[in-house]
Amino acid sequence: MASNIPNHAPSKLAMVPFVSVEHMMKLVNGIGVKQFLSELSVYVEEDFLRWELFDKAPRLATHSKEGVIELMPTSDGEVYGFKYVNGHPKNMSEGFQTVTAFGVLANVSTGYPMLLSEMTILTALRTAATSALAAKYLAPQGSRCMAMIGNGAQCEFQALAFKEILGINVFRLYDIDATATDKASRNLSGKGITIVKCKSSQEAVEGAQIITTCTADKQYATILTDNMVGTGVHINAIGGDCPGKTELHRDILLRSDIFVEYAPQTRIEGEIQKLPQDHAVTELWQVMTDSSEGRRTDNQITLFDSVGFAIEDFSALRYVRDQLAHTTNYIDLDMIADPDDPRDLFGMVMRAEDEWQATIC
Amino acid sequence: MASNIPNHAPSKLAMVPFVSVEHMMKLVNGIGVKQFLSELSVYVEEDFLRWELFDKAPRLATHSKEGVIELMPTSDGEVYGFKYVNGHPKNMSEGFQTVTAFGVLANVSTGYPMLLSEMTILTALRTAATSALAAKYLAPQGSRCMAMIGNGAQCEFQALAFKEILGINVFRLYDIDATATDKASRNLSGKGITIVKCKSSQEAVEGAQIITTCTADKQYATILTDNMVGTGVHINAIGGDCPGKTELHRDILLRSDIFVEYAPQTRIEGEIQKLPQDHAVTELWQVMTDSSEGRRTDNQITLFDSVGFAIEDFSALRYVRDQLAHTTNYIDLDMIADPDDPRDLFGMVMRAEDEWQATIC
């Protein structure tokens, strides 16, 4: 072919910026993971503060015996976003990721996609940023020590988000698999924080003002029993995030003031799936907008029953989109057919052939 | 940078084939548009024949005052697919497409995406292939002449599908905009068919055994009035495909045996939105599997009230996926994070930075 730029080259309108996994890693490292988490939490906070604007629906899940594939759409009226995400617990034993994700932002006014991005890494970042943001509103003042039970893929992101956004500087790690704790400890060395490797959950929670549970087993597990949770702590429960998967003993729930992202979804997927449908919970945005109280007393146990919600993904995609103006870490994809005459899609296809033939001759 | 292939180059597992608009045009022209339509109709037929296997749901629509953005997922238990599609009638006046689309296939067993494809062109092809497939079961035996009212983006695809799959060789075209008819007539010249340009819908339907309506106005339009529809014809109604957008006078519906893709969706979006919710309709797959009758008599008016359903998009994506083995018309996208140790997503991100630094030095 004589030319790489034939006459039918797609117009600017037809191009959608795509952030690959490699580009996302470069973007994160270029900005710095701590700054990325901190800036991302501001985007999440901005969107929680205008929560009522958003179209909200529980995610659209397609279940199979091996796992689930979900679509999570939302819109603020100007921008539409959705995430594709799977959850396949058996994947790890076959050399695949348990969770992979990608997402799209689109212009509500035209319906045109404006960003396609990997979201496996981005979801890990937004989950951590959201946890730390919730803790900023709910954790005891002056918290400095966090227990982290479950030291898998989410662990280091959580630690750095809590360091950056709340100033937590002591992390007490425990995992049933000591190699996971070693991995997290190694990855977090030299980050200006103190890591304490613990031999049990009980040991991990000693002296912690915040307890993060982030385990992966798909079952009704009891990562925390009632006696392990002292008065005044904030629990950041990440791992109980689908039907049949919880981490906390029911008695802990009954002693806690419970905060959630979006109650209709959390009642299906969160720790509170074990409670009656009318058990009182507060949505986090209500605390942020001062329409509900967050932490009232030093003795109160606050529980952020986090399952991950579409608006957080929207915030994360919005943040990535806003980086595109000053980064080269994306490529343009020719995703949208853009004929000169919108009624002449067929002609566009046929003429493309003629033009290729012409460039060959 | 010293190398374009750093050590952290993504594994095969992390790669998702992407068919761009340009690649789709090359694929269509390489196969030939008529053969593509014919082969695609076989894929649609295969999936309609195993209809009951599929997860089915009405599409998930996000409406705004300017238009709609929809996600259309489905799964056959082994493969999952969804389409993103927008519909913005006002776009054309601003130089944008009314409808753009892209789609994804994924492996149900792992949740991993296996194909990302443009679907603006592909949707036009699957719509035409499905129309012709329905007519194969419903139109009068020996049909040779089709009226086409509305000569926009879908027109030529319909004509070639009906030529290839049913042997229709006379097309009588009418559009309120004569330039659209001229455009379609020009695009269809030299394709071994007879084109008759008509000055009215009434003229277009004269002598036609099949009437295709494919207009774009978003309103309750009356493209066909009752007196224009003689006994025995098959009506292929494409343009009435969302709430508030229909093409046929209600009396025609009452004289017709009505066939639909998926009744719960068509009752919302199709011509039958004007009829009571319990008006008898037959799903097309039931005719294909002989569980319901199609055309019974020469005098019967059959109406395919087509709105487009997720399974047709699934078939189309499946067809494109099956072409990948013998085409170079795609690129691999690095869409899925694939760390060596699935629990070490953070380490993957951090080490990527080290490796880039190493390749720079």
Number of strands of chain A: 17
The H/E string of chain A reads: EHHEEEEEHEHEHEHEEEEHEHEHEHEH
Uncertain ranges of chain A? 1-7
Distance between the termini of chain A: 8 Å
Shape of chain A: elongated
Q: Rounded to an integer, what's the Rg of chain A over CA atoms?
A: 23 Å
- What is the share of helical residues of chain A? 25-40%
Q: Which second-level CATH architecture of the largest domain in chain A applies?
A: 3-Layer(aba) Sandwich
Largest interface: A-B, 84 and 86 residues
Number of helices, where a helix is a run of at least 4 consecutive DSSP H or I residues of chain A:
11
β-sheet strand percentage of chain A: 15-25%
Largest sheet of chain A: 8 strands, parallel
Say which CATH homologous superfamily of the largest domain in chain A is assigned: NAD(P)-binding Rossmann-like Domain
Short structural summary:
The structure is a homodimer of 361-residue chains. Chain A has 361 residues and is an alpha/beta fold.
Question: Could you characterize the architecture of this molecule?
Answer:
The structure is a homodimer of 361-residue chains. The first copy, chain A, is of the alpha/beta class and 361 residues long. The first copy, chain A, folds into two domains: 12-121 and 312-356, ornithine cyclodeaminase, domain 1; 139-308, 3-Layer(aba) Sandwich (Rossmann fold). Chain A has helices spanning 21-31, 33-49, 120-138, 155-166, 178-188, 201-205, 250-255, 263-269, 284-288, 310-323, 345-360, and strands spanning 15-19, 60-63, 68-75, 79-87, 101-107, 113-118, 145-149, 170-174, 194-197, 210-213, 220-224, 234-237, 246-248, 256-260, 282-283, 301-305, 331-334. In chain A, the strands form three sheets. Chain A has an eight-stranded parallel beta sheet. In chain A, strands 2-3-4-5-6-1-17 form a seven-stranded mixed beta sheet. In chain A, helix 1 crosses helix 2, helix 3 packs across helix 4 and helix 4 (155-166) crosses helix 5. The first copy, chain A, is elongated, with a radius of gyration of 23 Å. Chains A and B meet through helix 1, strand 3, strand 4, strand 5 and helix 3 of A and helix 1, strand 3, strand 4, strand 5 and helix 3 of B.
